[in-house]
Every structure is written in C-alpha cells, then in structure tokens.
Amino acid sequence: MKHLTRTRVRYGETDKMGVAYYGRYMDWFEMGRSDFCRAMGKSFALWESEGVFLPVVEAHCRYKSSLLYEEEIDIETSVSNVTKVSVTFSNKIFHADTHKLAAEGYTKHAFIDSTGKLLRDGNKLEEWLREKSIEN
Amino acid sequence: MKHLTRTRVRYGETDKMGVAYYGRYMDWFEMGRSDFCRAMGKSFALWESEGVFLPVVEAHCRYKSSLLYEEEIDIETSVSNVTKVSVTFSNKIFHADTHKLAAEGYTKHAFIDSTGKLLRDGNKLEEWLREKSIEN
Amino acid sequence: MKHLTRTRVRYGETDKMGVAYYGRYMDWFEMGRSDFCRAMGKSFALWESEGVFLPVVEAHCRYKSSLLYEEEIDIETSVSNVTKVSVTFSNKIFHADTHKLAAEGYTKHAFIDSTGKLLRDGNKLEEWLREKSIEN
Amino acid sequence: MKHLTRTRVRYGETDKMGVAYYGRYMDWFEMGRSDFCRAMGKSFALWESEGVFLPVVEAHCRYKSSLLYEEEIDIETSVSNVTKVSVTFSNKIFHADTHKLAAEGYTKHAFIDSTGKLLRDGNKLEEWLREKSIEN
Asked: What are the residues whose beta carbons fall under 8 Å from the beta carbon of D60, sequence distance 6 or more?
C-alpha cells in the first residue's frame, strides 16, 4: 500500500540557497502519513481523541535533488514496519512533473497514551495499522 | 517598560529572496512577549497552568529593512494597551549592530480559559499586566 | 476577482494551545497570493526570473475563529489596491466545511528589482496586476 | 571539539501534543552548526560569499525525551567526519537544567559551488574543517 499526497513548495519553505530548506521535508513527511491514515479511514486526530498518540522517536531523510519554489511534489507514504510498540512510515518525495526521486526517508513512532506512557501489547492502533498496510 | 530580546536570524528563516521571510517575524514577536512576561516574573506557561490563555486576535507588522542570515537582531517588547478582556504587545525589531529599525508591529490577545471562554472583569492576568507595564 | 486555494492544517502548524499557530496564517496568505498569480498566468517565480520582486512591506491579520489540525481551509485572495509602486493582496480564510470566516487580513508589497531598488512608473507588473484584477 | 549553543523552545515550535514538534529539531541542528562555524572564525555566510555552499544530503535524529515550551536547551555540535566532498556534523540536544539528553543526530553536507556542481579535491572548506575539528 502506497499513498500519494500532492502539494506545492511554498515561498516560505525555501531558503537563501534558493531551494526548499531541508527541515521542511519533515513537515511533508507528516502531511504524507496524516493523509495515509485519513485515507485508511482513521486520522491521527481520531486516534488522539481515543487517547492514542504517536510521537516521533526517530527520523531520517536522504536528499537527492533540490526542490524549487512553487514546484509540485508527490509525497509517497507507506508503512514499512509495525511492532507491538511502534510503527515506521516510509516516505519518498518525487518531482511531480518528472517523477524523479527528490528525497526519501522514514519516521518511527511510539504508541503512547495521553500521559506519555507506552501502550504495549495489542493496542488497537497496532492491529489497525497491520491490517491496513497488508490490505492495501 | 521596554524589554529587549536578542536573537540571530536562522538559515531556515530566510527565503529565496535571500533575506528573512516575512512570516517569521511573528515568531520573533512571540519570543519578545514570552521573554517580557518571563522577565516580569510569570511566564505564559505559568499563566496557562492556572487556566489563563492568550490567543492572538490581531497581528500587524510593517517591514522597514531586510534582515540577513546570521544577523543579530534586538526584539523590543512593551505593553501598549490593557483592557478587561485583552492586552496589546508592541514590538520593534532592530538590527543589533546599527540599532536601525527593521520592523515594527503589535499583537492583540484575548484572555480566555481552557475551554475557550472569554475571561472578563478583573481577572488576575489583567491586573498583573497593568501593574507590570506601569511599574517598569 | 477572488481566487480560492484549499489546503489542510498540518500537525506542525498547530501549537500547544491545540489549534493553528497565529504566525502560520502568513504562510497561508502567501499560498493564496502565489496561487492567485499562477492562476492569472504568471507566477512570482516567473516575475522574479524577469527581475521583479515583491517583498512584503506590511502585513495584517484578524483572527476570528481557531483552526484545528487536519481541518480543510479555503484561502480567498484578491487584489485590493495597486499603485505605481505597490500592490495589496487581501485574504480571507474560511473553514471549508461551514464556510465560516476564520481570519482575514492583507499584505502590501513593494515592487523592487534584484538589487533592492524600487521599481517606479509603469513597470509591467503593475499593469498586469491592474488588468488581471479588473478583468477577473 | 564540541560547541554549545543555548536557546529556548518557542511557543510556535510546539504542537498540539504540547511539546516541541519533531521537525523543528532540524532548525536547532542548523543553529548549532552555524554557531560552530562562526565560533571557528568563518560563518556559512562568509563561505557562501566565496562561492562554497553546503546543502544537506542526509539528516537523522533520535528523539529521547520531549522538550517543553520555554524550556532552555543546549545544542552540542561537533564535526564527526570530513571527506574530500562532504562534512558530517553531529548534534546532541540537552535539557539545559538537568543536562539530560533529549535528542541526538547528524547532518551530512556536500560541498558545492553556486551552480550546484560538487567541489572536489582539496577545496578550502575541507581543509579548514579538518583543521578546526582537530585543533579544538
């Protein structure tokens, strides 16, 4: 299952080198996984309303090719791993016009409750993520 | 009472025009008023822990002179108005080396509780802000 | 002429008050005017490639109603004033589901060349903006 | 050689989970390496003025412990690797009050000229970075 989110590079996302600033890719990865979960039927907002939060515990990105202001990009999101206590989303960012890879990376998330305590063993989010990433 | 906060323009705060992006001045105004309240003895975090929140209801900025990457800037913050239901912070941003004015503006804030309801009539934050802005 | 841009509030655009941070509205205003010009046939990127830049000289926003994570918003952009040396874009932000006004404001921009010098009298951008804002 | 930069978590750097947003750590890593080079005697701005740019080609972060609004943090920066065509900066972020590790990661940068071409073999930045990271 790979979910695609299309967006455009904003002026404020560029820096004085004339291309998109490296830190903003993390915002795009987040758009991608937010869209992924929403498309699967249950957004982060809904999970949070049930007391399940997914803070990032690890993030990684390789930058292959610069992105320009107002360029359209495709953010590809998939689930690459699910454990009892975590999920890893993989992301690729493509230049929308050429389909050339611009960047790739991942974010790993823990499952916690609203008090910050790890949710272990068979929480509903884990089951749902497994199901959705196999199914699609 | 005027409080000064010194900071530096970050690379990620510039845009492809080679200077600081206009939207980031709002983050600097916030640094200024956060520092102001902390210096006066009670930070926004403490007010929030007592159930008093200050969402922005109006923001304004005039941009006079561009700011460059790694330039040091001084953010000057004062309270220009306090009413029973709101406070207005005024901000000026100076080039630290020349003391030349780079931008000026203000943010107006409502006093609300954690449910979003307006706090009227003699709430403690109003009294405190009046006292602090006269005293200093 | 009013141009609409639809987007969604990102997780990273919220703050600890649980709603969209006030400074991010400036990024949305910019998305709006970028889209406006692109829709009119000539993007900021193209104007810049011809040596015409539009730095913000004034920005204003009134915040009427909070925006939540993953909420869809409509950014309405129009040109409210054009002079020989400046243009003012007006923006409204609506909750996409209810069409209720969430915020409104404007940004005023000078016309400058790549050296930062004001472009006066009959520059092509001025003519184009006048034409496009009447025409549409 | 380890360089320390102290800063505070801004309100706009938090998200609806009530703590600092994961993407903003990239901005802090950049503050750290900017400060490192400035402290070593030659800032990125000066290198860029001589036609040497350092785009990020890889970024990584492990998040250990959440950071709160207005908390002071220490960003520790060092050079962990220099090759003929790249440099890797390592970063640790500490809670300033407890010296507890909050996050750690790195960014790898290529050496390019203003046209985006890789600078190979004995460019001055490579020599300077080697010297500074041994010396200090």
From this structure: A58, A59, A60, A61, D105, D106, D107
